[in-house]
Specification:
The protein is 45% helix and 15% strand. By secondary structure, the chain is of the alpha/beta class. It has two domains: 240 residues, Alpha/Beta hydrolase fold, catalytic domain (Rossmann fold, 3-Layer(aba) Sandwich), CATH 3.40.50.1820; 55 residues, Arc Repressor Mutant, subunit A.
């Protein structure tokens, strides 16, 4: 059980409620969505039979907090990127004088990335879980965003149900209980709409190349939003970052394989060292590799690769993507170089081995 900690003063009129668990090296976990509070997280974990949160790790002092204006934190709910960075910085400064490990889930990803890029001396390790760098490109595409807003306008209860099933999995029996927990959280549709709008504008893609701390990107192998392809691009854009795909589809760390997640985090954080994912790869049975900008396909190259795997010719790929056949050949040449192969068949085989194909 987490212990209530002293409130963190951000501004004279804004205090953040924090909870600490354990003793040891500090691990800071910002809220993965402004409206998901410590209390609602605790209740969800309890309903799923968790005796402890996956972030409660031996040898770590885990600090979590309610977002501004939510739960037991004061102020008005504000999901703007600069506001969330300010709050994260205040919690880190109140927690430790030296570097801290930082784990960001879902919508906290851009916040952690921006903070780490600006304050590398304050972050010892960065762990990104089921998250993204660009709201517009990786999560809130125009069609999805319009659908969310329409659902919020039409039926609040249906929106909560959809959100619950998306979080814990569409086959989960716990989704109805999560709906009730969300109802009890006293959320207001207007705050959710405003929060979505603010999150949808966040784009820290230009900052990824500035990250200079050991970084681990974690994603569910069957995740849908953001999903493995976004995780691969994210890891490929951060110098020296490592990527691991874990079984399941839920973005909640306690919804599926919580024990595996705890072991993965413990391997990474205890003791502090350059990240080595060999044990993770062996234990999960899936590929964990060190992607880099020279190896990871670009988004367009990934599209070409998927179509090659489907057996399309260069001419058909050009028609599908509305580009010229010459451009397709250029993308294939780049792919062959990155994958260190000489032909299409070998490229598809290598891509499958590396987990690059959907």
């Amino acid at each position: 059980m987490a212990d209530r900690s002293p409130r963190v003063l951000v501004r004279p009129d804004i205090e953040l409620a924090t909870w600490t668990h354990g003793e040891g090296r500090p691990l800071i976990a910002p809220p993965h969505a402004p409206w998901f509070t410590i209390e609602s997280t605790r209740r969800v974990a309890e309903r799923m039979g968790m005796d402890r949160h996956p972030l409660h790790l031996r040898g770590q002092r885990t600090v979590r907090y309610d977002a501004r204006g939510m739960g037991q934190s004061s102020g008005h709910m504000d999901a703007a990127l600069d506001v969330q960075i300010e709050d994260l910085g205040a919690v880190i400064d109140a927690t430790a004088a030296g570097p801290v490990a930082l784990m960001a889930m879902r919508h906290a990803g851009p916040v952690a990335i921006a903070y780490t890029a600006a304050n590398p001396q304050r972050v010892s390790q960065l762990i990104l879980w089921c998250t993204y760098a660009s709201g517009p490109d990786d999560f809130f595409d125009a069609k999805r965003f319009r659908a969310i807003q329409r659902l919020l306008d039409l039926d609040w209860d249906l929106f909560l149900s959809t959100a619950a099933y998306e979080l814990v999995g569409w086959s989960s029996t716990q989704a109805p209980e999560l709906v009730q927990i969300l109802r009890d959280a006293d959320l207001h549709p207007a705050d959710i709409v405003r929060g979505w709008q603010q999150l949808a504008r966040n784009d820290v893609t230009p900052l990824l190349a500035q990250i200079r701390v050991p970084t681990l990107v974690l994603e569910r192998a069957d995740g849908r939003s953001p999903g493995p392809n976004v995780a691969r691009r994210l890891a490929g854009a951060i110098p020296g970052a490592q990527l691991a795909l874990l079984p399941g589809s839920s973005p909640l760390p306690f919804a599926e394989t919580p024990g595996l997640i705890q072991r993965t985090l413990s391997d990474t954080l205890d003791p502090p060292r350059p990240m080595a994912l060999g044990p993770i790869a062996r234990r999960t049975g899936i590929g964990a590799r060190r992607p880099d900008a020279a190896y990871t396909p670009t988004p367009r190259e990934s599209e070409v690769l998927q179509l090659v795997a489907r057996g399309l010719s260069n001419h058909d790929i050009a028609a599908e993507l509305s580009i010229s056949a010459a451009t397709v050949r250029n993308h294939l040449t780049a792919l062959f170089g990155k994958l260190k192969v000489r032909n299409r068949t070998a490229a598809v085989a290598r891509a499958r081995d590396e987990g690059l194909l959907e």
